């Protein structure tokens, strides 16, 4: 797909997303709201996909992301006033001595914060800390101390990853099915606090699938899509 076609598909998704945002007040019945929210999610995923395929200087994800989370929060509030969850991208980092969270995710979740005096060398500095709980359901949650940064990392992976090497995983459902596409990271989490005992190992030359409290994750080196001479540590 050439760049012009990608832009066309992205603009179509952007137009649909804007239409959904503008028509919120017209759709108040729960059944309609559920359908509209599902469409909102699907359109945003399309936009995110096509936007990530373009050069970084042409990305518009931050512009649309804020509108997306704002209107999704309204839908969730209308459907279930107790709903507080948001999707976020998590980087499991074995070398991290602390957990970091993006300012934007803290604002979306309305997480209470407390002051902290710390300098995070190599990532930036922080003046706040939070103690949120994250989990896939009520039976799985993880309490963390997280330092708030305006930007946690650059978009990861830096290039789109080739997932052909993962065919052996079959129907195993990954926590992030689009992990191979560059995107904004919301949370850097200390790796070992998330691990379970389950692994899928095919051979020492292939990536290992490791189960975590968030779901299945892929570990080890993977080839960058379209360039077998470069590798990415997932």
Query: What portion of residues is helical?
Result: 25-40%
Gap from first CA to last CA: 26 Å
Q: What is the overall silhouette?
A: globular
Strand order of the largest sheet: 1-8-2-7-4-3
Rg of Cα set = 19 Å
Number of β-strand runs: 13
What's the helix count? 4
N-to-C SSE series? HHHEEHEEEEEEEEEEE
What proportion of the residues form beta strands (DSSP E)? Answer: 25-35%
The low-confidence parts are: 119-128, 131-138, 229-234
Mean pLDDT: 71
Structural class: alpha+beta
The largest sheet is: 6 strands, mixed
Summarize the structure.
This protein is of the alpha+beta class and 234 residues long.
How does this model look, in words?
Helix content is 30%, strand content 29%. The two termini are 26 Å apart. By secondary structure, the chain is an alpha+beta fold. A hairpin with a 2-residue loop joins strand 5 (133-137) and strand 6. It is globular and about 50 Å long. Helix 1 (3-22) runs antiparallel to helix 2 (30-53) and helix 2 (30-53) packs antiparallel against helix 3 (61-79). It has four helices and 13 strands. A six-stranded mixed sheet has the order 1-8-2-7-4-3.
Question: Features of this protein?
Answer:
globular; disordered C terminus; three-stranded antiparallel sheet; 234 residues; six-stranded mixed sheet; alpha+beta; 4 helices; Peptidase A2 domain-containing protein; single chain
Topology of this structure?
Elements lengths: L2 H20 L7 H24 L7 H19 L10 E4 L5 E4 H7 L3 E8 L3 E7 L2 E5 L2 E4 L2 E4 L37 E4 L4 E6 L7 E5 L2 E5 L1 E4 L2 E7 L1
Parallel strand pairs: 1-8, 2-7
Antiparallel strand pairs: 2-8, 3-4, 4-7, 5-6, 9-10, 10-11, 12-13
Helix pairs in contact: 1-2, 2-3
